[in-house]
């Protein structure tokens, strides 16, 4: 596991963009799962403004680690956010964008999206293997849409599961911990003081870390890194 700390959210997003630009040079295809929420917005802006011609976008096949069960036009949609901050500014073929149909029946969509991933990604250890999964961290220690009240989603052998937001009750589609830990590489991209306590507990295996889904993200055969700003690293 590697922990990389940067002075502020901009420097953290820039460093991650650099890293993405680097790793894509070494491959012909990159199956990547994006995180949702607000943290990726800055990364996407930097990719558009500084890397649009430095990255070979046709190599990328975009998936999501989780999605809210809302239409793509909703302000809550992770796909919608990615379209607004990244895709609409770049020439990325629709064939390379594999969004979760948040507008569909959650149970059916979890099966459909899991099947799509299994059909398109190489099977390793009986599960599809992503090249790179970007994860965020919630203030309650959740990651993707695996929340503390649904820890069973960490060990689920399915590819995707339906999850539920603990306070809003909003349905979510999420990759399971098994698929996340089957990835070649997992990168947490986490910024802001609000995350510092959970980051400290998870990285030091202290406090209530055993109740935080993010504590169980340990790729079986892959790499794990944390891209943190100073505020989130608590330094
Ligand atoms: C989502 C996410 C979720 C997110 C964390 C952090 O759909 O909400 O994928 O796991 O990464 O909640 O969210 P922020 O980046 O907004 O703090």
From TrEMBL:
Superkingdom of origin: Bacteria
One Pfam family of this chain: Glucosamine_iso
Family annotation (InterPro entries): 6-phosphogluconolactonase_DevB, 6PGL, Glc/Gal-6P_isomerase, NagB/RpiA_transferase-like
Coiled-coil regions listed: none
Keywords of this entry: Hydrolase
EC number(s) on file: 3.1.1.31
GO biological process: carbohydrate metabolic process; pentose-phosphate shunt
Any one GO MF annotation of this record: 6-phosphogluconolactonase activity
UniProt domain Glucosamine/galactosamine-6-phosphate isomerase: residue ranges: 11-226
Functional pathway: Carbohydrate degradation; pentose phosphate pathway; D-ribulose 5-phosphate from D-glucose 6-phosphate (oxidative stage): step 2/3
Family the UniProt entry places it in: Belongs to the glucosamine/galactosamine-6-phosphate isomerase family. 6-phosphogluconolactonase subfamily.
Function (record text): Hydrolysis of 6-phosphogluconolactone to 6-phosphogluconate.
UniProt-listed NCBIfam families: pgl (TIGR01198)
Annotated protein name in UniProt: 6-phosphogluconolactonase
Organism: Roseivirga ehrenbergii (strain DSM 102268 / JCM 13514 / KCTC 12282 / NCIMB 14502 / KMM 6017)
Underlying gene: pgl
């Amino acid at each position: 596991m590697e922990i990389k700390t940067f002075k502020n959210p901009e420097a953290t997003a820039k460093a991650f963009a650099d890293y993405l630009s680097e790793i894509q040079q070494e491959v012909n295809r990159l199956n990547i799962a994006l995180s949702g929420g607000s943290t990726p917005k800055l990364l996407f802006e930097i990719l558009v403004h500084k890397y649009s011609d430095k990255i070979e976008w046709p190599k990328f096949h975009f998936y999501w680690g989780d999605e809210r069960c809302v239409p793509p036009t909703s302000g809550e949609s992770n796909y919608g956010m990615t379209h607004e901050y990244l895709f609409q500014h770049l020439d990325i073929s629709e064939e390379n964008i594999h969004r979760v149909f948040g507008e569909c029946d959650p149970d059916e969509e979890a099966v459909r999206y899991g099947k799509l991933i299994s059909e398109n990604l190489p099977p390793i250890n009986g599960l599809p293997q992503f090249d790179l999964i970007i994860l965020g961290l919630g203030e309650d220690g959740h990651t993707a849409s695996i929340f503390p009240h649904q820890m069973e989603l960490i060990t689920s052998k399915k590819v995707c599961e339906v999850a539920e937001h603990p306070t809003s009750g909003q349905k979510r589609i999420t990759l399971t911990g098994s698929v996340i830990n089957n990835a070649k590489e997992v990168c947490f991209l986490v910024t802001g003081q609000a995350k510092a306590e959970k980051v400290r507990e998870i990285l030091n295996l202290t406090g209530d870390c055993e109740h935080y889904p993010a504590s169980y993200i340990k790729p079986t055969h892959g790499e794990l890194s944390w891209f943190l700003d100073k505020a989130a690293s608590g330094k």
